[in-house]
Amino acid sequence: MVHGKNHLLIVMTGLALFLLGAPALFSDFYVDLVTKMMIFGIALLGYDIIAGYTGLVSLGHAMFLGLGGYCAAFTMKAFSTNLFPLLGVALVCALIVGFIVGYFSIQTKGIFFVFLTLAFAQFFYLAAFNLTTITGGDNGITLPKVTIGIPNLWETVVPRPQGFYYLALGFLVLAYLLCRRVISSPFGKLLVAIRENEERVGFLGFNARWLKIKAFMISAFLGVTAGVLFATYQDFVSPGMLHWTLSGDFIMMSILGGMGTLVGPVLGGAILLYVGDLLSSLTENWMIFIGSFFVLTILFAPQGILGLLYKMKGK
Amino acid sequence: MLLQVHNLNKSFGRLAVLSDVSFEVREGELKSIIGPNGAGKTTLFNVITGRIPLDSGQILFRGQDVTGAKPFVLSRMGMARSFQINNFFPNLSTLDNIQLAIQSRLKTGTSSWRHFTKGDGVEEKSLEVLDWIGLGEHRGELAINLSYGDQRKLEIGLALGTDPSLLLLDEPTSGMSRYESRSMIDLIEKLSRRVTIILIEHDIELVMKVSHSVLVVHYGQKIAEGTPQEIERNGEVQRVYLGGL
Question: What are phi and psi of B217, to 5 degrees?
Fold first, then answer.
């Protein structure tokens, strides 16, 4: 037992050192890619709370990424380019939208939940696409450079790619610690119980509906955080960030890595982004390979890559 | 009176499953509900515990009108039930199953930030319940891997873990071997010294042995109620059970 813990500690320390030192060792191209992986990782952690732990597979999670992106854009236009007000505004929006969408969606199950979350996400997508005077429509909105620090005192533009890399890393670590705390809490145990048998959770005296809304809101919270970071990193937000195919990517990344384990989906996201990038530089038809890879995962490693690793370690 | 049920009616389509059922349960009592298959016994439990809505009637629990209340509200008031068909958390350990029931009574039971501390006694209380139902040795096993008889006990343990004042047991011995039933009977007798129980049961012998009072339903109607002795002598009950089956 102690041995196993030491082992994990070594792996974690190694990973931490690697991630901290990576920008000095690798080219800007990889620093940029890993930054994107980490930003996606934040959203995937949130998605795992709702899809992996609670068992509510949503096909609308891109709505929170996009919500974060547009919140950042509007806030920048209105009063500040500082990252923290951007996050503040986005988080308030996440709680409101998360509550409303959660409230209605979680009353349904299975395929109805899938389609209701999709419908909500499409609503936001179409709004962003059609309200051209506000959102710029398909052309999107170009953002000024994001800053950090204290306004009027010390404020600086986040340097790229290294500065943003560390920013994303910091947020990913915070998001991971937050999720781990939530998952191991009494509330987290109830989420798994809801996935297992929602009815009995009610008969034990818990308001399962409220618990699910809360899970949805936490998931939204992390989604917009990733959205703000992504938009400010790209200096750009467009309806693409709200598109259902991105929601589909979340599902694919989660399944690939292993739903219901916090590390799995983050790993799945990183792999898919890397492989996607690699293959798309080789062939136009790279989606065929990703698709085949996905089919193989479902057939032979339904618990995802992390599940497969655990299984191999167990033997 | 702990529970008062007045003129319950429930139909599925044109089929009346419960017609004007009324009865009362006093504190400390063990009341059994018997009746042939399809008599409406489980439906009666389902409407009392808020699993399905009733068409008309009134339910008072601890003097409060709880007609139409949701299961989680009733559970918080002290009403717990077990199910005829196992309804636990199959891929969690036996201990984790019970812990969920225990945590339902804690202030921090739904906290997403504060963890349980030693002072909460979650594990001690869970182990106590596990010992009560005789599953202490199986605490680490997944519920799905327990023997069927032990699963039936876990089913009761989940209800018991919420520290109820009224416990509704829906055919705890269903599907059990004769041998397993016997240990279940012992458990129910032990429980009845601690908590008020309403028991649905097919095994007439068991019912007559453990109950303080018996309610007989047939085609959704109450046809008799009384002590086990009274029920044994009741002509209509004999007709339903001996002539009807």
Answer: -115, 150
